[in-house]
Write a structure and sequence with these properties.
Layout: E1 4-5, E2 11-18, E3 24-30, H1 35-41, E4 44-45, E5 59-68, H2 78-82, E6 85-87, E7 91-101, E8 109-110, E9 115-127, E10 130-137, E11 154-158, E12 165-169, E13 179-185, H3 191-198, E14 204-211, E15 224-229, H4 233-246, E16 252-258, H5 268-276, E17 280-286, E18 296-297, H6 300-303, E19 319-323, H7 328-338, E20 351-355, E21 358-362
Parallel strand pairs: 2-7, 15-16, 15-19, 16-17, 17-18
Antiparallel strand pairs: 1-2, 2-3, 4-8, 5-6, 5-7, 9-10, 9-14, 10-13, 11-12, 11-14, 20-21
Helix pairs in contact: 4-5
């Protein structure tokens, strides 16, 4: 189909989105408008976050005529862009375009993002600069009280009376009680961080979402490796807790990176996994360890090369999911390669990056990888 004409004489172009589960969705994009905005105008909220080409949440693979606006090479590396990689918030069609995205149709929201009143139930320090936040959601528009979301998704939190929102990954699993849990890093001078320092149980918040396309994909019985750093643990913790609830039997290993021992998250949910997931193993990697501390030293990407007896470097196919600070995804790719992992066996679903206002989700595609 060729581009049509709007009443005002401006061109518009068809963009055909194909989701990971094979559903096709057509959006008409006016000339000069990017895909995310056009989709929203048509009533579809596509997974996105920053809107400026810096986070990578809205990644896809495109064919056709389009122009890419300014964006961060960390969100879309040049070699990826040359292979058809795009960020939909920076993609301006110049003709018909087809886009393959890595998330299922269920991650596309119709009619707007859900908004729920919420109340703080618990605030507890769990690391040197980490806070555990537990919320109770109020009823939704239909009177429902449950918290429905997929592991790996995030919420945007807002203080009543202030238009600013901050995005944080959910650390627990869907439930009928309407409870949401978050592991949040406190940044000195940060807007929401300063709010949390003076907040108390009973204080109100507004929760928008769930949002995001980062998720746990079915991979059969292959072992699963998770790589997380700092508060990037939150979405991974949600996935691991979901595995425990469902009794999934895959051998599972979490490589958790922290800067110093004081950054270790003192979380009961993390300790519970050792009994709830029999095949689970936590490998903590400390960048600057205290003298005499018996822990793996360095970045999580290097821990796969430190296993004794080859137990982390066997040839079994696995699923690898990295989450944490920026740059971890390509670093994990390099680390697994030097650890002897077969190229086609290394798979990951996303990368979460911490900003002063919280994590940003990314889903994309690297050669030989499925993000």
């Amino acid at each position: 189909m060729s581009g049509g004409r709007l009443a005002g004489g401006d061109a518009r172009y068809p963009v055909d989105l194909v989701t990971s589960d094979g559903v096709s969705l057509r959006i008409e994009v006016p000339d000069g408008q990017q895909v995310i905005e056009a989709a929203a105008a048509a009533g579809f909220v596509l997974p996105s976050q920053c809107g400026q080409g810096t986070c990578g949440t809205c990644h896809g693979t495109a064919r056709g005529a389009y122009r890419l606006g300014a964006h961060s090479p960390a969100a879309l590396p040049p070699e990826q862009a040359e292979a058809g990689g795009v960020l939909l918030c920076r993609t301006y069609p110049l003709g018909p375009v087809g886009v393959q995205v890595s998330y299922p149709r269920s991650r596309i929201i119709e009619g707007g993002i859900a908004r729920r009143d919420a109340e703080i139930l618990e605030l507890a320090p769990v690391a040197r600069d980490g806070m555990w936040l537990r919320l109770q959601l109020g009823p939704d528009e239909s009177g429902g009280t449950g918290a429905e979301f997929d592991p790996g998704q995030f919420m945007e939190l807002q203080v009543p009376g202030d238009e600013r929102r901050r995005a944080y990954s959910i650390a627990n699993t869907a439930n009928w009680d309407g409870a949401l849990e978050f592991f949040i890093r406190l940044h000195p001078g940060g807007y929401f961080s300063e709010f949390l320092k003076r907040a108390a149980p009973g204080d109100p918040l507004i929760a928008h979402g769930p949002l995001g396309a980062f998720g746990l994909r079915d991979s059969g019985l292959r072992p699963r490796w998770f790589v997380a750093g700092g508060t990037g643990l939150a979405p991974v913790l949600s996935m691991l807790r979901r595995m425990a609830e469902w009794g999934e039997p895959q051998p599972t290993r979490l490589f958790l990176g922290i800067s110093e021992v004081a950054d270790h998250p003192d979380l009961q949910a993390l300790r519970d996994l050792e009994s709830e997931l029999p095949q689970f193993e936590l490998v903590e990697c400390v960048w600057h360890p205290d003298p005499g501390v018996d822990r793996h030293v360095g970045h999580p990407r290097g821990c796969g090369r430190q296993g004794s007896g080859g137990r982390w470097t066997d040839a079994r196919p696995l699923r690898l999911r990295p989450a944490g600070a920026g740059g971890r995804r390509p670093a994990c790719r390099t680390g697994c390669g030097t650890a002897g992992r077969p190229r086609d066996d290394r798979t990951a679903s996303s990368d979460l990056r911490d900003r002063p206002f919280g994590p940003r989700c990314r889903s994309g595609s690297w050669p030989g990888w499925s993000w």
